[in-house]
TrEMBL record:
A single MF term (Gene Ontology): hexosyltransferase activity
Protein name as annotated: Colanic acid biosynthesis glycosyltransferase WcaI
Domain Glycosyltransferase subfamily 4-like N-terminal per the UniProt entry, residue ranges: 15-201
A family per Pfam: Glycos_transf_1
Domain Glycosyl transferase family: residue ranges: 214-375
InterPro entries on file: Glyco_trans_1 (IPR001296), Glyco_trans_4-like_N (IPR028098), Glycosyltransferase_grp1 (IPR050194)
Keywords: Transferase
Length: 417
């Protein structure tokens, strides 16, 4: 196939959407496909352009993929308005690469959302050439902006909701990563036969079970008696990370207990300042770890925190959970009953569940885990990761769907139909 991928995040970003888009593109190229990517310079999750890159037009080759980078506005402090300006600046600057591509043919164009409006330039290519355009939704951005209060202007929310619905209804297909997100996409008027389930995966070559002895514990200065509670990933506003600091404050009485926060993001400076104000000596912050140390880093923890706000239920799916399952870690997960995350964890014994935004429930759950009362809760973690989250199987299946449908420009046969 000849494939064009359009997304604001891409390799070599280590976390989030950029990681998955980079691995997807590399997989296609390894199968012999001709792959081009229009993207931005790497900036996430630090919200700062990565060292070695410039915020300018640039072309490079990564794993056999032709990568075209367009400059964009990267705010130092992320607000709802600044995020809109950030995303729109990328759409406008990327037109430099889009214009010549309107005179070229592709077998498929994949737009990765968020931001949702990346589908508009691709839709023009569909009108000109009949090119199948797949909108791959990692986060339901507009719903999250509304439910989390990121955007409060009702007129703006209505405009964004109508624009998103109009765009999605004109896509050849829409893919997403969870059952709950699929249900919400159906509510936007998208036909079932246009929806593809394309979950996030685990790279078994990078993330696998590591013994306690071979983990990063000793490297970080922790002994056998130390107990580590780890949160690793994006330090953003959807997770309710202030609960970690409240939890650490409440559990000062537990000896040899450390809360380790690894990652970057818009909320990091605020969290560090609050930890200092509370004089939390049992909280340590570390930067993102290299990919080749990911398995050892995750294996160092006794408990992993997977936190989400109530309003984020079924709007985002915590990708960090896939890696925790792959190392066989015990995850303490906040999720409401009836959400995809809650039902999945409960059905497959993937971790210990507590109610979101309930610090009493979070504390009680953690104390029970540390007391050894929840050992059976995560017995299915490793098996589930091996059987259902394998990178090669998931990417093979998605590519099969594309290759079977790309020549049928006016029809789409989804496995969900």
């Amino acid at each position: 196939m000849k494939v064009l991928i359009y997304g604001i995040n891409f390799a070599p970003e280590l976390t989030g959407i950029g990681k998955y888009s980079g691995e997807m593109a590399a997989y296609f190229a390894a199968q012999g496909d001709e792959v081009e990517v229009i993207t931005a310079p790497p900036y996430y999750p630090h919200w700062k352009v990565k060292s070695g890159y410039v915020n300018a037009y640039r072309e490079e080759n990564i794993d056999g993929v032709r990568v075209l980078r367009s400059p964009l506005y990267v705010p130092e402090e992320v607000t709802g308005l600044r995020r809109i300006l950030h995303e729109m600046s990328f759409v406008l600057s990327s037109l430099r690469y889009w214009i010549p591509r309107y005179f070229r043919s592709y077998d498929a164009i994949i737009c990765v959302s968020p931001p949702f409006h990346l589908g508009f330039p691709a839709l023009l290519h569909q009108w000109l050439h009949g090119t199948p355009v797949i909108n791959h939704i990692q986060d339901l951005q507009v719903d999250a902006a509304r439910d989390l209060g990121i955007i409060r202007q009702n007129w703006l929310l209505r405009l964004l909701e109508r624009s998103e619905r109009w765009l999605l209804q004109r896509m050849t297909a829409v893919s997403t990563i969870s059952d709950g997100m699929q249900r919400k996409i159906l509510q936007k008027g998208i036909n079932t036969d246009k929806i593809i389930m394309f979950p996030n995966w685990v790279d078994g070559d990078l993330v696998y079970p590591v013994s306690r002895k071979d983990s990063a514990r000793e490297e970080w200065g922790f002994g056998d008696n130390d107990r580590l509670v780890l949160y690793a990933g994006n330090l953003g506003e959807k997770q309710g990370l202030e609960n970690i600091l409240q939890l650490a404050d409440r559990m000062r009485d537990v000896p040899d207990l450390t809360f380790l926060i690894i990652g970057e993001g818009g909320a990091k400076s605020r969290l560090m300042a609050e930890a200092e104000r509370l004089e939390l000596t049992n909280v340590i912050f570390k930067p993102l770890q290299p990919l080749d140390r990911l398995a050892a880093s995750l294996a160092a923890a006794d408990v992993h925190l997977v936190l989400q706000k109530k309003a984020a239920a079924d709007l985002v799916m915590p990708s960090k959970l896939t890696n925790i399952l792959a190392v066989g870690g015990h995850a303490l997960i906040t999720a409401e009953a009836g959400t995809t995350l809650h039902d999945l964890v409960k059905a497959h014994h993937l971790g210990t569940l507590v109610a979101p935004e309930d610090i009493d429930a979070l504390e009680q759950g953690l104390r029970k885990i540390l007391a050894g009362e929840c050992e059976t809760n995560y017995r299915g973690a490793r098996t589930f990761a091996a059987e259902q989250l394998d990178k090669r199987n998931i990417l093979f299946g998605f590519r099969q769907i594309l290759t079977q449908n790309t020549k049928q420009h006016n029809t789409w046969n989804s496995p969900l139909s």
